[in-house]
Amino acid sequence: MIENGQRVLLSGGGRTFYVRAGTGQFSTDRGIIDLDQAVGASPGDILHSHTGYEFVIRKPRPADFFAHSRRSGAPMLPRDIGMVIAHTGMNKNDDVLDAGTGSGIAAIYFGGIARRVVTFEKRPDFAAIAEENIRDAGLSNVEVVADDMLNATGAFDVVHLDMTLSADHVRHAHTLIRPGGYLACYTPFLEYLVTVMDTAGGIFAEVHAYECIEREMTRSDRGTRPSTRVGHSGYITIARK
After folding, report:
1. pTM
2. Average pLDDT per consecutive 10 residues, the chain (241 residues; last block may be shorter)
3. Which CATH code for domain 7-58?
4. Dihedral angle at the C-alpha atoms of 64, 68, 70, 76, nearest 10 degrees?
């Protein structure tokens, strides 16, 4: 059942709107939608605009927060987040430290999988945006800390870093990771990739680096072909302790 103030998606008429239930009227090019009617409804129920368009209620999933939630910068793409989850084997028994929270998108993905996520963001304004997005995702197991990850303490199964990295960050991450655990670093430029690999190579048992290049397929009356969008986003380094 949808609660008052909960984030929902309304999809119909070729449009999708990311809204909050119970906040009155919402004007769209498909008519006015009464969001108060969403309170007490269930995913799959239908709301009508005043012009008669039907909108199906959907509960947002992590990919929807990537697409619609408020941003403080460019978040990691879902494909890169998926690589981190897959290569570290992140699971329901894991404690995860995430750093470079940004909008909190990676933390939202991790929070749906791991037992606990602590995410560090140095900028208080970014941390506040992330807290709002994580709260909208309904995740009680994700904690946002407005601080430098170099001040982090504790023991974690996975440490994920998406930030401007130095050798000190890699070395400190090593002290936080339980034996057999993983460090995962996202780096948009090769120079930072080299820093991570060179530093991790001296203290971790295994180090591997990857680039994930994705090509979306497009289809038209003329035929089917890869999209012309740039497929590169960044590099993922996975190190095991």
Report:
1. 0.90
2. 94 90 91 94 93 93 92 89 97 98 97 98 96 96 98 98 96 98 96 96 96 87 85 92 98
3. 3.10.330.20
4. 60
